[in-house]
Amino acid sequence: MSPTNASYENGSKVFTPKNTLPEVETENGNGHKRYSYEMLVETAQFLLSRTSTRPVIGIICGSGMGSYWNEGSLAESIVEAERIPYEEIPNFPVSTVEGHHGKMVFGTLGEVPVVAMQGRFHYYEGYPLWKCCLPVRVMKLLGVKTLIATNAAGGLNPRYKIGDLMIVKDHINMMGFAGNNPLHGPNDERFGPRFPPMSKAYDLEFRKIAKQVAKELNIENIVREGVYTCLGGPNFETVAELNMLKMVGVDAVGMSTVHEVITARHCDLKVFGLSLITNECITSYEQDNEANHEEVLDVGRMRQDVLRKYVARLVEEFGREEQRT
Ligand SMILES: O=P(O)(O)O[C@@H]1C[C@H](O)[C@@H](CO)O1
Ligand code: HPA
Questions:
Q1: According to the UniProt record, where is the region Disordered (predicted)?
Q2: ipTM greater than 0.90, yes or no?
Q3: Which of 119, 243, 246, 293 could join 101 via S-S bond, C-beta 3.0 to 4.6 A?
Q4: Cα(269) to centroid of ligand 2, in Å?
């Protein structure tokens, strides 16, 4: 089905956008389906009916931040938390990663109303990118103004150490280079424009605040700022791939976030990105060690107290900044 009504004027085809996109649309030739605006409104309305929280900040908890465990995680420290499992949410995909929590957690952090995704959807699980990003659009419809996207990533910058935190300054959309983009397909203007800019993807003010907060918390020695890229996964990268990414200016490599950020910027959410460096990227054939998921989770647990305190303070500060602007 076409998202436009086509008619002919003086022999030329004229397209008039329809008011709504069809409920489920077969994407250009690749067989993927997509959700309509109305389905996402239904999802948002369901969530709003299940909680009295009206979140202004949305947080995506990455692998290092309690998407695999609850104890001591940021999601656990949300006050007056209401937890809604993904299985109960209409139109929501169900996380297939073993051990992932799969819950939307509503409540407050430092008196700022928030919603946290405990468990995200990854491309390697088999979801098309637009489906991985569905919760971001739902957050927008819930009234969220700012997205904090966190992830676990391999450190490619040789100065980075395992356990460092990287404020994401920018990203390189490697999957987008191959034409795989969450905005691929018909555009719905109610979310945003057909051709959204990405040159200010990661909010400058938030990045400044994050550096200031790192100083206050005395963790500035482990907080870096750099460029993140997402590959499709699930395999970790080859030595040649990592050396190529290093050459083009990538500091940290992961399997998420970029498409979420593109979707968030498209619908005008402000974005802050944070990577936990969980492993060293292997850039030489002489190195014995290999990347592995257990190490990613171990480092996540090791750093979770710091991450929780840091992100909780950032939420307070971003909430304040939100009120100022
Ligand atoms: O959800 P994130 O991006 O934090 O998870 C990363 C990427 C893979 O899911 C996993 C690899 O260990 O960690
Ligand atoms: O080294 C990595 N590569 C890709 N994704 C990752 N997620 C954690 N570490 C890595």
A1: 1-29
A2: yes
A3: 119
A4: 26
